[in-house]
Amino acid sequence: MAKTGGLGEVITVQDASASAQTITNDITNWTLSTPRAVQDVTGVDKSANERILLLADISMTYNGVFNYASDMSHEVFATVPSTSVPRVNTLQPTNQTEPNLTFTCIFTDYQLTRAATGELTWQVPGSGSNGAVPTWS
């Protein structure tokens, strides 16, 4: 059966020095979007819209628990405010080796939240950066 849940996944993210780090244990949830731009090409002779597909994109947000251990999430994302390097991400959303998605993005923020109840969490949004179409394997 090919239907599955999102358990047992693996997520790797390059740090600022381009070393891939597996930070799956720190990530509590994530969102991923692969939108396509569209151009309206509707002629005045039509009664409904005509559109063509344009550029592909990818955007994502990782959410997680603060972990300052070596090679874990804080060490990977702490350089987001001070570096401008694209980072390769590999997202394997199931406990199988496929499907997976490898994409390069720039992270635009490293947001920390300390809740009133004491949780220390983070959120990291990113956007595609290398001109490659995001493709699932």
3D structure, described in words:
It is a single chain. The protein is mainly beta and 137 residues long. It has one domain (10-128): Pnp Oxidase, Chain A (Roll), CATH 2.30.110. The protein contains 1 helix and 10 strands; from the N terminus they run E-E-E-E-E-E-H-E-E-E-E. It has one helix at 73-77, and strands spanning 10-14, 20-22, 27-33, 36-40, 51-56, 59-65, 87-92, 101-107, 111-114, 120-128. The strands form 2 sheets. Strands 1, 2, 3, 6, 7, 8, 9 and 10 form an 8-stranded antiparallel beta sheet that branches. The chain is elongated, with a radius of gyration of 18 Å. The model has no long low-confidence stretch (mean pLDDT 95).
Task: Give the topology, please.
Elements: E1 10-14, E2 20-22, E3 27-33, E4 36-40, E5 51-56, E6 59-65, H1 73-77, E7 87-92, E8 101-107, E9 111-114, E10 120-128
Antiparallel strand pairs: 1-2, 1-7, 3-6, 4-5, 6-10, 7-8, 8-10, 9-10
A few lines on this structure:
The protein is mainly beta and 137 residues long. The protein has 1 helix and 10 strands.
Number of strand elements: 10
**Mean pLDDT rating:** 95
Number of domains: 1
Could you name the ranges where pLDDT drops below 50 across 5 or more consecutive residues? none
Structural class computed from helices and strand pairing: mainly beta
Whole-angstrom Rg: 18 Å
In CATH, the architecture is Roll
Number of helices: 1
- Mind summarizing the main beta sheet? 8 strands, antiparallel
CATH structural class: Mainly Beta
